[in-house]
Amino acid sequence: MLRIVVQVAAVAGSLGAVAWLVDNARVNLADAGLDTDFDFLDDPADFQIAFSGFRPGDTVRAALLTGFKNTLIVAAVGIVLTLVLGTIVGIARLSGNWLVRTAAGAYVETLRNIPPLLVIVFANAAVLLPLPTLRQDAGLEGWLVVSNLVIVAPSFVAGPGTAAWLAVLAGALVLAGSLGRWRTRRAAATGAPRLAVVVALGTFVVVAAAGYVALGAPVTLSRPSNDGGAVSGGIAMGIPFAAVLIGLTLYTASHVAEIVRGAIQSVARGQVEAASALALSPGQRLRFVVLPQAFRVAIPPVLNQFLNLTKNSSLGIAVGYAELAAVTSVAIPNGSPAPQAFVVLMGLYLVVSLSVSGLANVANRRLQLVER
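^ thats the sequence. predicted structure below, dont judge the formating
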């Protein structure tokens, strides 16, 4: 009973403190003649957001949603690249090759001891801004436009029949997976060559190509063209986005690499020796024995790094990337009330962080060991 009373009192005290702070802020804003509502979200933003369809006449709500979308994009792409790069570097840290091991160690020890803001600024100022101008264009004609303003690559354009072709691709993927598993079971039962990857990949390519031809080329390739500084076609990536993506990926991957290295070393040595006794190749030992067990250990701290990457995307303001915090910092001087604007900002970041954390917890529960 005493434990319950203490907990109830703690909750009541916390709610009372929050209520007092909110009321105090409301009274102070009223005394200063400032509005306490959120009607400003429907006012014109009066500023433009580069590399987007947003215009000054659009509302502040639309501006914040554009910044929110930019935050999600850089976080999603950065998480994928960070996981791939961090895993590769973490494995390289344990390589038997001295050069590979030393290079991976130098990368980790250098990047993880530098503030992420400096990595982003360095990527922007030393790597991307020195690129040629649009008129000079150091890319490949018709395939890639590389400049200090934008990088444009080929993109796919959907046409009639795209949905049907996507359905064909899904069916091809299922068929390829089924054939790959069949080849694996057959190899285990008869000793015949496995060739699961070759059979699965060949099946997928043949079915996808046949569907593409049968549906009359439903997806076409849009190639970039640079006409003296005006780029058309392809998909564009602004230099600020590239700077933030490169900086956050390199920095966060250095931490993920150390997590992966520690997780691999946590796998019992007897597991590796048993895999060697079964004549598994080094690649097979890593794929089928070591990494599945290591990732069970690595997932919780790696997911924390994904959250850090998502929140560190706010550092994009330093290089002019229009993520959520940068858009908010521009909206406030243009007439949006700071308290309400920051409430919206914190609420949206909270939504992103809780979403990433929720997905991470689901993955963690599915992969954790269960004792029966």
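The mean pLDDT is 86.
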